[in-house]
Amino acid sequence: VANFSGSVSVIDAATGTVITAVPVGSDPLGVAVDSSTHTAYATNGNASSVSVISVVLPTPVTTLTSSPNPSIFGQNVTFTARVRPVDGGSITFSSGAKVLCRTVSLIQVSGRTYRATCTTRALQAGRHTITATYLGDASYATSAGHLTQIVNRAPTALTASIRFSPQLA
Prior knowledge:
By secondary structure, the protein is mainly β. It has no helices and 15 strands. The strands form four sheets. It has a five-stranded mixed β-sheet with strand order 8-15-14-10-11, with no helix packed on it. Strands 7-9-13-12 form a four-stranded antiparallel β-sheet, with no helix packed on it. The radius of gyration is 28 Å and the shape is rod-shaped.
């Protein structure tokens, strides 16, 4: 909200209370908000200018675990991401540029801690950097958790049988 006193009031939409006042140019007349960039623009009447107000969103902590680790080629591996503090949202799990599970919805664990899981058997033998990316929302910035998943080759077994047959004379 523009205040003729040379400031813009930031209001918590949920409670309707003023959180803070940001100083801008002389006699602000109006405020426009770009929610995708978390930026507000205030037109300053007597200053013939526009003030740009950027908001830095808090970055939640994303942690990632897997089970089992190490795993064996062809075996299911379950990745679990925990994100806090957030109010829901979604996670994408990837191995390098390869998406393993796309936009998995977060499920509330307790309070503002959420989790999401991804189960796959799509990893080849070797070391993989797995990333769980929280996609962010209007209140929180994006964040990511990483881990190294080791996939061992599957054991191979060679069997042979010998068949004896009577020789013809």
